[in-house]
Amino acid sequence: MGFLRRRSLARLLDGLAEAERRSADDPAALDRSIELWDRILEDADMRAHPMALNGAGWALLTRFRRDGAEIDCRAATRRFEQAYAAAAPGGEHRRDAAQNRCTSLVLAYEWLGDVAALDQAITLTEAEVADAGSEVPARLAGALAEARFARFRRDGRDDDLRRAIALAEQAVAAAPDAEAAAGYGRNLRTMMDTARGETAGMRTNVAGVSAARAAVTAAPQRSPDRGGRLLNLGATLYDRFVREGDLADLAEAVTALREARTVMPPVAAPYAQTCAALAVALLEQAARRDRPELIAEAVTLLGEATDRTNPHAPDYAVWLSMLGNARSQRYVHTGDPGELDAAIAAYREALDRLPAGHTDRPGLLNNLGSGHWDRYGRTGRSDDLSAAADAYRDSLAELPGDTASRATVLGNLANVLAELGDPQAGPTYRQATRSALETTTGTAVAVADTWGRWATQHGDWAQADDAYALALTAMRRLRERQLIAGDRETWLLATQHLPVAGAYAAAQAGHAEQAALRLETGRAMSLSEALQRDQRRLAGLDADAALRPLAQRFRAAARVLASGAR
After folding, report:
1. Looking at residue 138, what is its pLDDT?
2. What is the pLDDT of residue 529?
3. What percent of the chain has pLDDT over 70?
4. So what's the pLDDT on residue 200?
5. Which residue, of 212, 216, 507, 556, has the greatest Cβ tally within 10 A?
6. 251, 250, 277: which is closest to 264 by C-alpha?
7. Helix and strand element counts for the chain (H, E)
8. H, E, C per residue of 347-407
9. What band does 530 get if pLDDT is binned at 50, 70 and 90?
10. Number of domains in the chain
């Protein structure tokens, strides 16, 4: 092929690629571009041109993202494989083909449920990364990081998570511009949060929200990227709301996600993701604003997300789990037993879709147990009680280490065992309380209080004494950790019965001195909190020279009483 012809064809390919980017939201234009790619590849000289093959594959993959047709995904992967074989080793076109092939194979797993495609993506792309040495392009490292993270979510293997984080760090370092670095950085934070055991999603800051807003502003109304950018903005705002609690962030997240849902084609996986993200935000609004109608909307959205997802895709089980949670919340508001039955069915189907060892299974099993426990409370059916115990035990068997979740599940299991009259109820309550003392003090207070009430009802004063001793320890720790005065007062009001209940249990167990100490400690704690509240009210007296000595004497007395509470 002559130089002039190669140059003309290169310009044509560049122009065609640009036209695709501009018209990807126009179904007819995208279909025409794919037909044009096919005609270009009929040329003998272009049939093995890596740039043409990459372009043709990307057009097919773009249509797959739009329509979700499996044939387009498979055809795109073949084009990328041809481009990879035709490109010179170590060259830019070969790296592009490797990255594109990895992306299409991961999509085949995530959208079509092709498990083998994910493993193939990792094996082939790791080989290319190894050949690249220290010069791994950001796109290639980022694609492989996403593939490794997807397999971690599937199998729960720590080596996949560690490798995903290392690759994401490489992608951030090698990013060609700030926008690309921000995108890789968001993925990296999600992976690192997962490694720390956090579930709130990626941690964001003002800069992250500002960048997401700017990305939406820069996308024209008909841009194919606008829906994805709105989804990212909504997710970023929601994650900041989870961390900081600003309801304005939650409201803006809902607005962004509603718009994202209107501009996205309703056939692709991102549309289902948008429905699910919007449902989560609406459930949060429903809880904070007492608007049960938002729960009904969330149920509808999650049903839509499930209906539009391939049952073999990994997100299918996630949407089912979320649908179960939403239906459980709707049951609480409506009392409709059909909602609870549907929630239990959703949890069971989701569990059937997840392989053993999957990181989502323990939480799902706990939710399933809670569904059966709630249904037992409504119907009194013994099979629901047994099913709840089995689910909680299975959850504990699959939970790693001594986590906050473990304490919660242990407490749930103890409640079921107590209802069954199982003698292991007491030891399980004890284990749950001690576990919670190291992780979530509020849970420790609640579990120990329940344990104490149960032991008191059964006249087991030794256990009741132990339970309230741990409850009071947790109560003191919780009070010390509550930096906001209003939070301390709320907890003090909710736990004000513990010193009296603990004193009664100690007296019945034959520990009179301990009973007196618990009563005095509770009294001192209440007085100390009251004095601290009064101190805040007295702060304005310092401005009055005549009243300042009185305020100082009051504070001195408060310090004496506070030392007694400790």
Report:
1. 93
2. 59
3. 84
4. 36
5. 212
6. 277
7. 26, 0
8. HHHHHHHCCCCCCCHHHHHHHHHHHHHHHHHHHCCHHHHHHHHHHHHHHHHHCCCCCHHHH
9. low
10. 1
pLDDT at 292 over 60: yes
Task: Decide: 333 and 292 in contact? Cβ < 8 Å.
Answer: yes
Question: Could you give the percent of the chain with pLDDT greater than 90?
Answer: 49
Distance CA 293, CA 257 (A): 18
| CATH classification at residue 117 | 1.25.40.10
80 lies in some domain: yes
Distance from C-alpha of 373 to C-alpha of 362, rounded to nearest angstrom: 16
What pLDDT is stored for residue 485 in this prediction?
Answer: 47
Query: What is the model's pTM?
Result: 0.74
Average of per-residue pLDDT across 319-348: 96
Burial grade of 212 (CB within 10 A; 0-12, 13-18, 19 or more): buried
Q: Tell me the range of 39-48, 379-388, 531-540 where mean pLDDT is highest.
A: 379-388
Identify the sign of the CA torsion 294, 296, 299, 303.
negative
DSSP letters for 158-206: HHHHHHHHHHHHHHHHH-SSHHHHHHHHHHHHHHHHHHTT--S-----H
Least confident of 6-20, 185-199, 388-402: 6-20
Provide the 3-class DSSP secondary structure of residue 244: helix
Among 111, 73, 69, CA closest to 81: 73
Is residue 149 within 8 A of residue 309, CB to CB? The reply is no
Q: Which amino acid is at 155?
A: D
- The DSSP secondary-structure symbol of 87 reads S
Answer left, alpha or beta for residue 114, where phi above 0 means left and psi between -120 and 50 means alpha.
beta
Would you call 219 helix, strand, or coil by DSSP?
A: coil
Site of tokens 């034959």: 510
Q: Taken in order 242, 245, 249, 253, is the CA torsion positive or negative?
A: positive
Distance CA 405, CA 275 (A): 27
Question: Cβ distance 465 to 511 under 8 Å?
Answer: yes
Domain membership flag for residue 64: yes
Please state, rounded to an integer, the average pLDDT across all residues of the chain: 85
Q: What is the DSSP string of 447-513?
A: HHHHHHHHHHHTT-HHHHHHHHHHHHHHHHHHHHH--SHHHHHHHHHHTTTHHHHHHHHHHHTT-HH
Provide the residue range defining the domain that includes 88: 1-135
Q: What is the DSSP string of 259-275?
A: HHHHHS-TTSHHHHHHH
Token pair of 254 as six digits: 């809902």
Question: Does the residue 406 lie in any domain?
Answer: no
Judge whether 529 lies within some domain: no
Q: What is the pLDDT of residue 512?
A: 92
Task: Kindly indicate the confidence band of residue 14, based on its pLDDT and cuts at 50, 70 and 90.
Answer: low
